[in-house]
Amino acid sequence: MANDPLLAALEAITALRSLETVEAALLKTIGEIYPQIDRLHLLTWHDGELIEYGALLDGQFAEHNGSPLHAEHPLYSLRHTLHYDPERKPGVYGEYYLYPLSRLDTLTPTHALLALRTTRLSGQARKVIGSLIRIVENFTELLREKNRDRLTGLFNRHQLEEGIHQLLNRRTPHTGGQYWLAMMDIDHFKQINDTLGHLFGDEVLLTVSQLMQGAFRNQDQLFRYGGEEFVVLLGGVDEDGALGALERFRSDVERYRFPQLDSVTLSIGYCQLLNQGSAATALGEADQALYQAKHRGRNQVFAYHQICATQTINPETGSIDLF
Length: 323
Hints:
- It catalyses: 2 GTP = 3',3'-c-di-GMP + 2 diphosphate.
- It contains 9 helices and 13 strands.
- By secondary structure, it is α+β, with helices and mostly antiparallel strands.
- It has 2 domains: 4-147, Beta-Lactamase; 157-321, Alpha-Beta Plaits (2-Layer Sandwich), CATH 3.30.70.270.
- Strands 3-2-1-6-5-4 form a 6-stranded antiparallel beta sheet, covered by helices on one side.
- Strand 12 (312-313) and strand 13 (320-321) form a beta hairpin.
- The longest helix has 25 residues, at 123-147.
């Protein structure tokens, strides 16, 4: 009978289909089964820096979406002790017990840590938590295969719609925040395929995806939308920050020396996630901005609100009349 809550929790977790909600559910489950744990922190490394993705504090879950540890953070003093170590074993560090996680499903799946604070957790309880973590990791590995593009490793189109819905729902008058959706297309990609072959085209797609991962932050979400199209969801920045990141990526691709090609360029269209109501509407706005970037000469970034400032809205469809 004592294990019934654990079995119920496993049943609930394995019914989830979003990696983000699975990670949150893992923290909540551990906190509910072992209420003597007053703090749980989900941590990972990015560019040599320890950052936090989520926390459970006194029973309340808080998503941090990749926040660096600040000086007041309870684990700040341990940041050098908790350096990246792929061979790390579960153990006590200060007043925390740490569990290494094989991967955290961020843009660049990476090793992570789950840190819990308690002085009243038995050895058996620690083993149960470790087993729960391994089961959940095995389950999330199956979700990764379903939600990621096989060639590039980026999130796929199915996961994109869910990601847009989450950001549209997250942006409320109470939470505020600015979120951006950008759609990107490799210029003249069909010509690359026709001239050099599809295997070479796949290498271009893979290289662009790698440049993409290097250009954006760990908390941004990257997707292969299909064919030569990519999408990024950015949060926590104003328009200058979003535009700067998009321009940096466009420039990175333009400067990269692809074998047998003089250059490869990208066209990018973006919009702010506001009150679109659906993923299809938001994607449609970014796609119209992308069309304008192509129409105006390619290899540039164009914003949907620039269209709104110069074109008219069709009252029957609610969309921009481009011509």
